[in-house]
Amino acid sequence: MTKAADIHLSYADLVALLQKIFVKNGVSENNAKILAENCASCERDGSISHGIFRMAGYVSSLNSGWVDGKAVPEVEDVGPAFVRVDAKGGFTQPAMLAARPLLIEKVRQNGVAVLAIRRSHHFSALWPDVEPFADEGFVALSVVNSMACVVPHGGKTAVFGTNPVAFASPRAGAAPFVFDQASSAIAHGDVQIAARAGHELKPGMGVDRDGQPTNDPKAILDGGALLPFGGHKGNSIALMVEILSAALTGGYFSGEFDWSGHKGAQTPFTGQFFIVIDPARGGNDVFAERVAGICDLVLEAGQERLPGDRRHVTRAKAETDGIPLSAENYKKLKALADT
Ligand code: NDP
Ligand code: PYC
């Protein structure tokens, strides 16, 4: 049973609290606002594995000197439909926002454009990166690689990150259709949450340090590894994410960066890739209606809900009641902000 929340904060108050923590720990005001809004949005929508749960990890990484919270990304215009960004060892979200105006200009000009971010840290959910494009009428897909903790299908050594893929599309009469999913059987954040809570995982999520299947999250975290979702099929998606996020952008593969000299480092130093499309170029002026139509068909066929529905229900409740926090978590955030 979920414990009732002790405290409810408005989105603005949570952003202000998180921004203060980021600034205290060496992040520039501009980057701190972006990261705080991102993290508060995750908490508001119930993306718990990437909400305030991550704040201690952000702080730890910043204090280890592994990530540069003050990095100023360098945006390069490298082709009619290609934007590249060197995040300079900072977080990807400010890099993406710095490149966004040029990217949108190119999408409007060409119907499609890509964004390749390198030398960047991503420690959050991916849906906040794509959903705003769909809110503006574009179709967007993004991938990011992380830290090697997933063994290839049938393999023994972790090569892939948990490598999520997020997709967003406008939908007539409703919020954009958005899905955001790891290519591992479970996100690393959820393994950490299960380990803390003392819960077992479902079978098929990971292996222990000897490569034996285990449902024990602690055994996975202690030298074990995760599995790709769906066997060889999820494996290929994880591999594609490495290719797009690292090989194509000039970033590191998930197993390539060395953070051993930065005790406490937790944020993966990799790359991120986006494709953004103007659906009007499809010559179909009822695109958003068609998307709504296929979504309706799926529900009529018996699927209980669509991806994103849970987030929107949680968001609506948070907008009415405030974002629920336990007293313990609120105290931890206050301590990070005040010390
Ligand atoms: P989930 O398996 O919880 O959800 C994946 C997607 O499926 C979501 O869009 C979700 O929608 C949808 N969904 C879940 N259950 C159902 C259902 N019963 N019917 C229809 N749709 C459903 O996500 P993951 O555990 O794979 O990933 C969790 C988060 O971790 C993601 O936000 C991801 O970006 C993040 N992550 C980040 C990484 C990084 O490197 N930064 C690495 C790996 C993961 P809904 O949200 O509405 O439930
Ligand atoms: O939950 O797998 C995860 C993850 C990796 C990096 C950030 N989140």
UniProtKB/TrEMBL annotation:
<protein>
    <recommendedName>
        <fullName>Delta(1)-pyrroline-2-carboxylate/Delta(1)-piperideine-2-carboxylate reductase</fullName>
        <ecNumber>1.5.1.21</ecNumber>
    </recommendedName>
</protein>
<dbReference type="InterPro" id="IPR043143">
    <property type="entry name" value="Mal/L-sulf/L-lact_DH-like_NADP"/>
</dbReference>
<keyword id="KW-0560">Oxidoreductase</keyword>
<dbReference type="GO" id="GO:0006560">
    <property type="term" value="P:proline metabolic process"/>
</dbReference>
<dbReference type="InterPro" id="IPR043144">
    <property type="entry name" value="Mal/L-sulf/L-lact_DH-like_ah"/>
</dbReference>
<dbReference type="GO" id="GO:0047125">
    <property type="term" value="F:delta1-piperideine-2-carboxylate reductase activity"/>
</dbReference>
<comment type="similarity">
    <text>Belongs to the LDH2/MDH2 oxidoreductase family.</text>
</comment>
<dbReference type="GO" id="GO:0050241">
    <property type="term" value="F:pyrroline-2-carboxylate reductase activity"/>
</dbReference>
<dbReference type="InterPro" id="IPR003767">
    <property type="entry name" value="Malate/L-lactate_DH-like"/>
</dbReference>
<dbReference type="InterPro" id="IPR036111">
    <property type="entry name" value="Mal/L-sulfo/L-lacto_DH-like_sf"/>
</dbReference>
<dbReference type="Pfam" id="PF02615">
    <property type="entry name" value="Ldh_2"/>
</dbReference>
